[in-house]
What we know:
By secondary structure, the chain is α/β, with parallel strands linked by helices.
Amino acid sequence: xxxxxxxxxxxxxSRLSGLGPRSxxxxxxxxxxxxxxxxxxxxxxxxxxxxxxxxxxxCGNIDSIAPCTICADPRRDKSIICVVEDVGALWALERxxxxxxxxxxxxxxxxxxxxxxxxxxxxxxxxxxxxxxxxREVIVATGATVEGQATAHYIIDLLADQKEQETLxxxxxxxGVPVGGELDYLDEGTLLAAIKSRR
Length: 199
């Protein structure tokens, strides 16, 4: 077996999503083989990440500056807030170049089974942001899971009840047939959502 330091690294890597113990062991072996080109730069990057990471006080994104790069960008449309479950969803939308507005990270979804209620999510800050006179649209971009759908309905009801602006539009992501998808391979729920969201 490997030394204690190696086993500790394997243990921590295996806790990462998508990496089990075997994958973590292979990753550690790769790091050991390429110490100069991989291990040392990775170690430096992890230390820098630990020391420099900040959570944006406006939207909840993680960045090395606060407010984050997106909130600080004057080219962003401040009248649009796109609500996402987590930073991973924010990054996915950014990679796609889909949102030119700002974001709001909830920090999860409502889940009675996991004991996550409205108080555990970043909803109070969203309510305050949505009341700003410059905000014209809130896009609810939660996932198509049961929890994501429940969270979306809760947000829509919450903002509809408290909105003072008649001009505030609350929208949701469309769900349905993926680009390149064939109808006979899709499940009934996806097809039903596609028909309901037709335009």
